[in-house]
Amino acid sequence: MILSPLLCLVLAFLAPLINAQAIVYDAIHNATSLVGTWSSGSRAVSTGPGFANPANQTFNYPTNTGISYSFTGDGFYEIARYRFNGNGSNPTCIIGVIGWVHGTYDLLANGSIVMTPFGDGYQQVQNPCAAVSNFIENYNLTELYQSWRIFQDPVDGFKLHLFQFDGAPLAPQFQLSSTPVMLPTQPLRNVTPPNSGTTQLNKRSNGEGHRWTTSIWMVAGVVVIALGSLAV
Length: 232
Prior knowledge:
Elements: H1 4-17, E1 36-40, E2 52-53, E3 58-59, E4 66-71, E5 76-85, E6 95-107, E7 113-117, E8 122-126, E9 134-138, E10 143-153, E11 157-164, E12 173-177, E13 198-202, E14 209-219, E15 222-231
Antiparallel strand pairs: 1-4, 1-12, 2-3, 4-5, 5-6, 6-7, 6-8, 7-10, 8-9, 10-11, 11-12, 13-14, 14-15
């Protein structure tokens, strides 16, 4: 088991949150409800039936990269992501990743969000320089966001800012719809349930992969989530 990623996550997350105070939900920082569908950049990426087909693990590729998050008022979420990751040592080896996941979310008292997947999420990875250049794998990781804010942009309207577990910001997202555009809020494909306390991220094309262990602590009233990796 690789412990260093787990320890790094714990240390990075504890420092800013041990003395965290409850978020103030006011018109300055949260100008509207989190409920709805949000999208970054050109708004080419959106959750819902136009992006992913979970039954056969395929995607309808958008015209541009981006991210999209949707939230319901009764605790369900959906995420659509399409991005390219550069390679500084070999600029021609650009990795494309497109992924979809959904499940339930909880708003914590300190302003954090914990998103827990149903277990049927997946992503497609394309790497022209890898031994296996194109494969589908399950994606079912519990995600923790340190905080969130919604501002009123004078040109583009409501703008959502999400901050990851270490405080790093995601690309700002603009509200596409105040009514969430989502696939049904239930498991949509048959998958082998992960073992208790773990989530699985397994490649479909060649059988190789890792099982990611998820450790959860409660520190000063804050949920801390860390990941380790076990080769399989």
